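Title: Prediction job returns without error message
Component: structure pipeline
Severity: low
Priority: P3
Assignee: unassigned

Description:
Job completed but the reporter wants confirmation the result is attached to the right record. Sequence as submitted:
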Amino acid sequence: MAILVTGGAGYIGSHMVHALVDRGETVIVLDDLSTGFDAVLPDPAQLVVGDIGDEALVGRLIGEFGIDAIAHFAGSIIVPESVSDPLKYYRNNTVNSRALLAAAVRGGVTSFLFSSTAPSTASRQRCRSTRRRRRRLSRPMAGRS
């Protein structure tokens, strides 16, 4: 099985890459290295520097390596930057992720793992829709009413 790991040079993605390589999987990493580092990758993993929104590139990788599964860790998460440049985050986390999914469907990828970029609540308690409870939501990503 060949697995494409997006954001695989980042903190969480690189841990997945190591686990997959340890299991003997063929791992292709697609990362733009905006926050990741190629030095964290194990030797058997192949790094392709590129953008998850580049459908042609993703399609080529799926075909060239016979990708069966995609593990998607390439979401943007820097909260202060997301507040100052929300369109950049919308583009990467929504538009580019959709392009990645479209390329996966076209390429016949049978498994897709999506990793969320952040938790939405501060605790495991049941969260009712009260003003007090809403304050417990992570800021500034929580909605306001």
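Comment from assignee: result matches the submitted record. Helices lie at 11-22, 55-65, 79-84, 86-107, 131-135.
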